[in-house]
Each structure stands twice: as structure tokens, then as C-alpha cells.
């Protein structure tokens, strides 16, 4: 039975970041442990149910509206909830977010962080940062809890301190971040303290990563980033099929 959202590929191919089964590079998995028992025709409705499990408050909805107006994009509710949980579980006092948008994911991260936690959030678009600051103010976030840095993230990240951060969120976007994904991974791992958490959003890239027939540049770059994280012995990863895919990894 196909396990991917698109339903277009061979059985089991979704287990290996989209490599065809014949490529022989699938991660070792036992047939006995194959997920057929939990993958059913109802999977899509379960995903929708999970996305709608928690209602969003007015401040998040307003930030989402700003994102729609500016065409900035925003994490769906299930991803947002997962970000809050990860930030809380890691007791994340220091967080770096790459790609602020209008602050939807930022609000979820801040919700999970302790009250004295500081979110450093980077975006290349000044207009997005202006909107994000409105989102933070409307949510009652004290200005000392956010540090917005406007600029291309690859120019900003090298200025941040080694091993000083509890969580790094990397939002993959085409037009810059995706194309330089290996450099972003290097920077993110450098910034994390041991025990810190790397989070990569869009790790399933619009349901294309799991489909080996999709070999466009962006999808290939996301797959390669997944392989790099999987192969990195400093990281303990899991790929969560929430939203557009959250690749999470603890820095050992
Ligand atoms: C999809 S939005 C982020 C949305 C955010 N994660 C949320 O859920 O609210 C992607 C953002 O990344 C920013 N961005 C794209 N390339 C960038 C780069 N190279 N450096 C910094 N920001 C970048 C865009 O301006 C945009 O605001």
C-alpha cells in the first residue's frame, strides 16, 4: 500500500526520502515493522483532524491574515502547535528563526518558550518584519523577548554565537534558503548547544519529496538536506509528517 500523500509512487518508496526502492539506498526497515497497519485510506482525514486539533487564538489569526495580505506564507496550525511543544520540551530560552514572515511561527515558538526566553528572528524583507512586529505587539509580547534582524540569513547567521541556542528553526523557501541548504545546515548545527533542537520546516516540500518521480531542483535539494541530516552523527533526527513536514533533530 502506498504511504505517500500523492499516492503516485511505488510501495514503500516514501520511506527513503523519495529514492526508488530499486536504488538500494532505503534506510533499513523491517517488513514486520512496515507501517501498512497504520496507513489507511483514512490517513488524509486523520491529517486534517490533527491540523484542526487545536483552535488558533485571535493574535495568531491576525498574523496569518497579515501573511495572506503580503503573500508571506505561514506554518499551518499543526506545525505551529508542534513548534510550541518542541520549544517547551527543550525549555528553549534562546531560539533562532530563519524566515520570520509575519510572525505566525514566531508566536507559536514564543508560546512554548519560558517567559524570559528571547527569539532571534531573521528575514530579508523589512515589510515582513514590520508586520511581524505588529503581530508581536497584538499578542502582548514584550519587545525584549524578540530580536528582529533584517537581512539575508546567510549574512546574519555567521555573526551569531557558537553553541548559544536551544532551538533553531529553518524555514525552507525557494529563492535563497533552499538553494544554499547545506550552508544553512552547517550554520544551524554550529549555533546549537548540545541537546539543542534543529527544526526544518517544509521537509516534505509540498508532498514532492516522497515521490521519486519528482526530480526538480527544489525537491532534490530538500531530499539532499534530509539525507545530510540523517547521515550527520552529531544529530538524532525524526521526520514528523505534520503540515508540510517537520524534520527535527537533537544536537548530541
Ligand atoms: C514562508 S515565510 C516564513 C513564514 C514563517 N515561518 C511563519 O510560519 O510565520 C518565508 C520567509 O522567509 C524570508 N526569506 C526568504 N529567503 C530569505 C533569506 N535568504 N534570508 C532571510 N529571509 C528570507 C521571506 O522574506 C519570508 O518572509
TrEMBL record:
It comes from the Bacteria. PROSITE patterns: SAM_OMT_I (PS51682). One of its GO terms (biological process) is methylation. Residues 1-21 are annotated as: Disordered. One of its GO terms (molecular function) is S-adenosylmethionine-dependent methyltransferase activity. Keywords: Methyltransferase, S-adenosyl-L-methionine, Transferase. This is O-methyltransferase. It comes from Cellulomonas persica. The lineage of its organism: Bacteria, Bacillati, Actinomycetota, Actinomycetes, Micrococcales.
Amino acid at each position: 500500500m502506498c504511504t505517500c500523500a500523492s499516492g503516485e509512487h511505488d510501495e514503500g518508496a516514501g520511506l527513503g526520502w523519495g529514492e526508488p526502492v530499486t536504488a538500494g539506498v532505503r534506510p533499513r526497515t523491517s517488513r514486520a515493522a512496515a507501517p501498512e497497519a497504520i496507513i489507511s485510506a483514512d490517513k488524509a482525514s486523520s491529517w486534517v483532524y490533527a491540523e484542526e486539533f487545536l483552535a488558533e487564538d485571535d493574535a495568531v489569526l491576525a498574523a496569518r491574515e497579515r501573511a495572506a495580505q503580503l503573500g508571506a506564507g505561514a506554518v499551518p496550525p499543526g506545525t505551529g502547535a508542534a513548534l510550541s511543544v518542541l520549544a517547551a520540551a527543550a525549555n528553549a530560552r534562546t531560539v533562532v528563526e530563519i524566515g520570520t514572515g509575519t510572525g505566525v511561527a514566531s508566536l507559536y515558538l514564543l508560546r512554548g518558550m519560558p517567559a524570559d526566553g528571547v527569539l532571534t528572528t531573521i528575514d530579508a524583507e523589512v515589510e515582513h518584519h514590520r508586520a511581524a512586529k505588529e503581530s508581536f505587539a497584538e499578542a502582548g509580547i514584550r519587545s525584549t523577548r524578540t530580536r528582529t534582524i533584517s537581512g539575508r540569513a546567510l549574512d546574519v547567521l555567521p555573526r551569531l554565537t557558537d553553541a548559544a541556542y536551544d532551538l533553531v528553526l529553518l524555514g525552507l523557501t525557494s529563492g535563497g534558503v533552499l538553494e544554499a541548504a547545506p550552508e544553512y545546515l552547517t550554520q544551524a548545527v554550529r549555533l546549537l548547544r548540545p541537546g539543542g533542537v534543529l527544526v526544518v520546516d517544509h521537509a516534505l516540500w509540498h508532498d514532492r519529496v516522497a515521490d521519486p518521480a519528482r526530480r526538480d531542483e527544489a525537491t532534490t535539494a530538500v531530499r539532499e538536506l534530509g539525507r545530510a541530516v540523517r547521515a550527520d552523527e552529531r544529530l538524532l533526527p525524526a521526520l514528523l509528517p505534520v503540515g508540510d513536514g517537520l524534520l527535527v533533530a537533537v544536537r548530541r
